[in-house]
Amino acid sequence: TEAPLGVTAVRARNVKTGEVHDVPCAGFFVAIGHAPASELVKDQLPLHNGGYVVVEAGSTRTAVPGVFAAGDLTDHHYRQAVTSAGMGCMAALAFHIEWMREDGQAIPDPRGVQDILCDPGLADWRAGAQIAYVPLMVDRGSPKRVNVSIDPGLLEAIDAEAGRRGMNRSAFLASAARAEIRGQH
């Protein structure tokens, strides 16, 4: 099969007047409500649970490389607009990272707010900017489950500290490991 040409516009019809017009765009999201409108992809992507697109657990990646699905099209549990918005951001980030890899660009490591605030190269950008920290987990594939043995007292301290930080055990251990690896202990 030939590579898809891409999206150049969306044809929209005003449901009140019947007027049809094309809206130029390079991509689009479709809000489908409570019934997944997966007819467009039913012969190209695996579906389950009455027509929802199958994605890798914890991601927006489908069975077709370079194709991502998000929100109501994949979420048979919550089916809410907020889920669609959040997953749409996940899909956009996953696509961007995949594009960077294909373009031969290095994937940057996530940076903390303090690193950004102290970076002299960003001084002009920071002038008058409001910064909100959103931790970015670069998609390097599905998380791997590991089995480790930890002293029960240490495990209790880990869980307590993770709770104080609003994290679960896995997130806390991963964060501590990253800090140790980077020498920030």
Q: How many strands in all?
A: 4
Major pleated sheet: 2 strands, antiparallel
Q: What is the N-to-C order of secondary-structure elements (H for helix, E for strand)?
A: EEEEHHHHH
**Spatial strand order of the main sheet:** 1-2
- Treating each run of at least 4 consecutive H or I residues as one helix, how many helices? 5
Give the helix proportion (percent range): 25-40%
The end-to-end distance, rounded to whole angstroms, is 52 Å
Task: Describe the protein in words.
This protein has 185 residues and is mainly α. It has helices at residues 81-102, 113-118, 123-126, 152-164, 169-181; strands at 9-13, 20-24, 47-48, 52-53. Strands 1-2 form a two-stranded antiparallel sheet. It starts with 8 loop residues before the first strand and ends with a helix.
Brief overview:
By secondary structure, the chain is mainly α.
Key traits:
185 residues, 5 helices, 4 strands, 31% helix, 8% strand
